[in-house]
Amino acid sequence: MTNVGPSWTPDQLQRDPHANPQKATRVQSMFSAIAPSYDLNNRIHSFGLDQSWRRRTVREIANRLGSLRDKKILDVACGTGDLTELLYAAGANATGGDYTPAMLEIAKSKSRKFSDFGLRLRYLDADATQLAFDNASFDAVTIAFGLRNVSSPEKAIAEFFRVLRPGGTLAILEFDQPRSKFVRFFHNLYTERVMPFTATLIARDRSGAYKYLPRSVATFLSPQGIAQFAAASGFERIQHHSLTFGTCALTLATRPLV
User: Which of 1, 31, 193, 215 is the most buried (most CB within 10 A)?
Assistant: First the structure.
């Protein structure tokens, strides 16, 4: 793969990357650059916890819906399809959508091992802020580690509400800042110093992706901020689960029946 130039410069990351007017195109360029090593870096640098967080997400959605069997679920910002595959394995009709073609190609390649790929499991180009689906199309919408990468989280959450059926569940899995000062010190040391260096080496990355990651987390909405956007869009039964000493948070919400 030919590596591209920097999507994020040190000067841009000194400021709030979420306020950058070119955020959407920069994020797309960044993920195109790191797509081939994305899964490997996730497993190594989360110590395998990233998949346990996704499995927790699947269980919590199943708890709200009763079962995922034959439920229609949209996984937004699906990346290489890890969560989409887990939803499919739980019995759902899973649709993964992503803004970066390079990530979708890897997701499709991984999923061709399933006999009903393209039927009960499929992948489509998707912009979280302009979803090309009818109103009330899905029983659940998920987004894992992707909300902070969209150009307008508030608009995306409103779109999630629109495409959910009444009674449907929204699940937002996102990184968070540990509340404990002790845990936060070592967490920040790892995410701001160690991980960017080693992940960049593994990916042979010049895009600045793994310097963007900790900065994007530090400057993004708290779970309470996400809840406020969800409530403003009309969601109810908003609940948070703090995972792994507060390094990650799962926000669940329900579209009202009426």
Answer: 31
What are the residue boundaries of the structural domains of the chain, listed by start? 23-177+221-254
Select from 3.50.50.60, 3.40.50.150, 3.90.330.10, 3.30.70.20 the CATH code of 23-177+221-254. 3.40.50.150
Q: What is the tens place of the pLDDT at every residue in 14-62?
A: 888 999 999 999 999 999 999 999 999 999 999 999 999 999 999 999 9
- pTM, two decimal places: 0.93
- Residue 47 gets the label, from left (phi > 0), alpha (psi -120 to 50) or beta, of left
Separation between Cα atoms, residue 179 and residue 247, nearest integer Å? 9
Burial class (CB in 10 A: 0-12, 13-18, 19+), 213: buried
Q: Could you give the dihedral angle defined by the CA atoms of residues 238, 244, 145 and 258, in that order, rounded to the nearest 10 degrees? A: -10
Measure CA 123 to chain center: 15
Separation CA 206–CA 166 (nearest Å)? 44
| CA separation for the pair 122, 108 (Å, rounded) | 8
